[in-house]
Amino acid sequence: MDAFDLSTLVFVIFSLILTAIVYKRRSSNKTKLPPGSFGWPVIGETIDFLFSNPEKFVSNRMKKYSPDIFKTKIMGEKTAVICGPNGHKFLFSNEEKLFTSFRTHSMQRIFQSYQSNSPSPSPSQSTRVIIRQPGFLKPEALTRYLGEMDLITQELLKSHWEGRNEIKTYPFAKFLTLTLACRFFLGTNNTDRITKLVNYFDDITLGLHAMILNFRGTAFYRANKAAIAVRRELIGVIKEKKEEMANGVKMQDILCYMIVVTDSKGKFMPENEIADKIMGLLVAGYSTVATTITFLMKYVGQRSDIYENILIEQKEIVAAKKPGEVLTWEDMLKMKYSWNVICETMRLTPPLQGTFRQVLTDFTYAGYSIPKGWKVYWTASSTNKNPAYFQNPEQFDPSRYEKRDEPTPYTYVPFGGGPRMCPGKEYARLAILTFLHNVVLKYKWELLAPDEKVVGDMMPTPEKGLPIRLHQH
């Protein structure tokens, strides 16, 4: 090859490389990704997300990159974190248009039946249909259960608190909420079975957002083992239910409905799938309610003025009732101040930091493009403590919900919004109000570790279980 041919070849190669670089830059300009960092290879920013506190993780990057949106890589996924009230509104308005539910890989592994590749609706979608269609969580259905919820709460407070000077709030809150959830979802109040399940559910909750490291000592390993044990226990409950139903025993709970419901082809749901769906409902109805009750006790225990206001409201409700009469829906509607206190608790300490969505199609938000297949992370913490939306955001102030100018729409969304708003919102409200009603009428308390450290990643947990000293009225 002569010198001319060689120089021509070099020129052609150089031109092709240059053209490719220019084309790549132009293409990347068309797809303007949000600012941010994907972090380390493979693990991305997962460790920082999980172990530096998700709320702080989001807050720091909002300040560094953008208050509206930033990119990251967490839980093995390229993710756009959409922030602020406008972000909340955009997300809630585009459910099943631009986004669909996404379960982290650890969740998919723990809830085994969710790994099906069938074209049927997603597990979360089908579960929402199951619990909403028969109206299990509608006010009229919950009203029938409210009296029993009141009696169970009274009974557990008596058996666990009466005659004791000190108790740990968090373990009790978990036992109470799991008892209520088992009674409501499973139709069972077997205390031995519930006691056995509590520790399993703790491990499952911690493993839902853990890195998939399946060897002894890791959070995921413990969660996986716990899920196997719970699934085995629930399949036992399902078999018992089937036998009772076959003998003509009439039952009205979500588990029974799952047993008898069929798909479009007339097929019944497999027992493993029923067990996984019930396990998911129990986890949701157990951990978030228990966390809110625990921190409610903390904040009210710090403020005697707030305690007295709650007590006045609850005494007025009792004064209008006959002795021994259980709570009614009308009573719940009168607990306006008490509910404001609970709302303020969830603002300062959200029981769940956030959830993921999968992007169904390319879209643009705040001037940035988000590709199909990415994940979107939604979190209430991008607004909860922002002084632009909440005056004196670190102050515990239940009266802020009585003011017309606060909160701004889409700034306070502890239960999400849109089609995916938590279907258990009313159930949670009744459970927490029922507990608060009963506890303030019998007890006053003081915190034994007022500066107790809050640990946990996606689920905040008081390190010592929130020990309190009781004073019975």
TrEMBL record:
Tagged with keyword Heme: yes
Primary localisation category: membrane
Sorted UniProt keywords: Heme, Iron, Membrane, Metal-binding, Monooxygenase, Oxidoreductase, Transmembrane, Transmembrane helix
UniProt-listed SUPFAM superfamilies: Cytochrome P450
Record-annotated membrane-spanning stretches: 6-23, 278-300
GO cellular component assignments: membrane
Protein name: Beta-amyrin 28-monooxygenase-like
GN (gene name): LOC107791887
